[in-house]
Design brief:
The protein is mainly beta. It has 2 domains: 224 residues, Sandwich (Protocatechuate 3,4-Dioxygenase, subunit A), CATH 2.60.130; 96 residues, Immunoglobulin-like (Sandwich). Strands 6-3-10-9 form a 4-stranded mixed β-sheet, with no helix packed on it. A 4-stranded antiparallel β-sheet has the order 5-4-7-8, with no helix packed on it. Strands 11, 12, 13 and 16 form a 4-stranded antiparallel β-sheet that branches. Strand 9 and strand 10 form a beta hairpin.
């Protein structure tokens, strides 16, 4: 199994990001009230250091810190579709941000020296059945000319991706810096939203929550609406449709066991692999010589020696025409 091919997708920077207003959520970011109105706002620049997060398989991970210093920070994003304001599952979300000292991995130049070849504070995940992704990172620092921020990209399909940035309440953010001078040597962030070249035309819908979690770190949440209604049609899926179709596992969310439907256009060998959210292959099942038609592949987590958890499952199909792969997310019942 070629893991690099599993994680390879190509993203386009989209023309707009859409964000909602008037929503109600519980403390863990789960929706608890009536759906509100989705509001269109312009997209933001990717900035000077976006990189292609799919170019290195190490970027598929939930913990992106790589041991870099900073206050622990859990960032949760919910992705919803503009058409109906409902969660979008199985879309890829990339994030990247600067270090506690205001530097970005991957580049070396006069204002960002010594960072070429590094990959810290970058990563991507796939949204679960609730449209949620979660990243473990550090609270970012800041650098001259920009207020503290995090970049994110929502890759919906091969022809559309939305890109934007988020920021934080100023008083809470600067309190983190003040309480941790050894970790944030630049001190308080001096800029207001209106002084920042990205947020000076509006920031209300890009303002993430920021709250202490009682464990020495901080939790953030932001909901982001993008074009569509939760049915991604990426390039790989379009190409694969002539060979096979990988369905969403049933039930989803699941407890203990689940079934993955797959439709084959011709007789094929099928390998179904499970990956945890750090990008590690944790289990796999193989079915050789399956005939064309509909099939249901049962997965019993007890038999596989795995806990009930969120996993990405990938189907690899081999036949006389070649090899094809497609992946989806399965969500554990909370």
């Amino acid at each position: 199994m070629n893991k690099r091919e599993f994680l390879r997708t190509s993203g386009l920077l989209g023309a707009a990001t859409f964000l909602p207003i008037g929503r109600a959520f519980s403390e863990d970011g789960r929706f608890t009230g009536e759906r509100g109105v989705c509001t269109l706002i312009p997209s933001e620049t990717a900035g000077p250091f976006p990189l292609d997060l799919t170019a290195n398989t190490a970027f598929f991970r939930q913990d992106i810190t790589e041991g870099y210093p900073g206050v622990p920070h859990t960032l949760r994003l919910r992705i919803i579709g503009l058409n109906n304001c409902e969660p979008m599952s199985n879309v890829r979300v990339n994030i990247w941000h600067c270090s506690n000292e205001g530097r970005y991995s991957g580049y070396s130049q006069s204002n960002n020296p010594g960072q070429a070849g590094l990959a810290y504070l970058r990563g991507y995940q796939f949204t679960d059945a609730d449209g949620m992704v979660e990243f473990q990172t550090i609270f970012p620092g800041w650098y001259p000319g920009r207020i503290c921020h995090i970049h994110f990209q929502v890759y919906v399909n091969s022809s559309y991706a939305a890109i934007s940035q988020l920021t934080y309440p100023i008083a809470t953010k600067n309190a983190i810096y003040a309480a941790n001078p050894d970790l944030y040597p630049s001190g308080a962030d001096p800029l207001s939203y209106n002084q920042d070249g990205i947020f000076n035309n509006g920031y209300e819908f890009q303002l993430a929550t920021l709250e202490a979690n009682g464990e020495g770190g901080y939790d953030s949440f932001l909901e982001v609406a993008v074009q569509g209604n939760g049915i991604p049609t990426g390039l790989e899926e379009v190409l694969n449709s002539a060979q096979f179709e990988l369905g969403q596992n049933v039930p989803n969310p699941y407890v203990g066991s689940t079934v993955v439907p797959i439709r084959l256009e011709r007789a094929s060998d099928v390998q179904l692999d499970l990956y945890d959210l750090q990008g590690r292959k944790v289990a796999g099942v193989q079915h050789l010589g399956l005939p064309a038609g509909e099939h249901r592949i049962a997965l019993d987590m007890n038999e596989l020696g795995l806990p009930t958890a969120n996993y990405v499952y990938q189907a690899e199909v081999r036949n006389s025409e070649g090899v094809w792969r497609t992946a989806r997310m399965m969500t554990a019942q909370r």
